[in-house]
Amino acid sequence: MSSSGSTPEVRIPASEATAKLKEMKSSMMEDAEKLIFKTIPRRILNLDEVLKSPDFKILDQDQYGLLVDAPEPTGRNEVDGAGDYQLDPTEKVDTLPMLPGAEIRLNQTLERLHKVVEPLAEQLVNDCYLLKMWIQLLIPKVEDGNNFGVGIQESCLDQVSGVQKDSASYIDEVTRYYLTRAKAVSKVTRYPRVEDFRRTVLEVDQKQYLHVTMFVRQLRNDYILLHDVLTKNIGKIQKPRNYNAENLY
Question: Which of 106, 117, 119 is nearest to 205 (CA)?
C-alpha cells in the first residue's frame, strides 16, 4: 500500500510494460537519427543566419556598451554646470547616501540577445541528452575482446557530453553577468563621483556582448562537429562489434 501523499504506482502487466519500454527505446532511436541527419543541418543553417543579423556583428564599443550616467542627486548635494557633484567639504565620499528614486536600467541590447541565445543553448543541451541516450542504448553487453567499436562509441559519447557541459555553462554565465553588473551599478549609485565605477559597467557590458557573440559561433561550430563525428562513425556506433568483425576477414 502506498504511503499517504505519495504517487500511486501504475499497475501494468509485465508483458505490456516490456512492450511499451521497447517501443519507447525504438522511438528514441528514430528521433536521434532524425536529429543527426535532418534536424542538426537545419540548426546549423539557422545559427549561421543568427550570426549574420546586425545584433551579432562586432559593433563600435559605444553601441554595445552602456556607460551609466550618475543619477541626479537629491537633497543637500548640488550639481554644477559641468555635471560634477559638489559635496560639503566636510563630507567624505564614502559616506555619500544612496540616491532615492535612482534607477539604472538593463542594457537593452544585451537583454534582447540573451532572450535569443538562451533558448538556443537549452536546445543544444536537450539535443545532447537525446544523442547520449542513443549511443548508450547502442553499446553492446560487456564481453572480452572485439571492443574496438565500443571504444569508438565511448569516444563519441565523451564528445557529446563535453558539448552539453559547455552549453549548460552558458546559462550560468548569464546569471553571473547580471550579478557582476548589479554590483558595479550599486557602486555607481553609492559613489556617483567615481567615474571608474561607471566605466566598470561599460566594460562588463562590452565583455558580455563579445561573450554572447562568440557563444553563438561556438553553438554553430559544436553542431557542425557533432554532425561530422556522428555521421563519419555511424556504422561503428550502430554496430560496434559486427562492423569490426566484418573488417577482420
Answer: 106
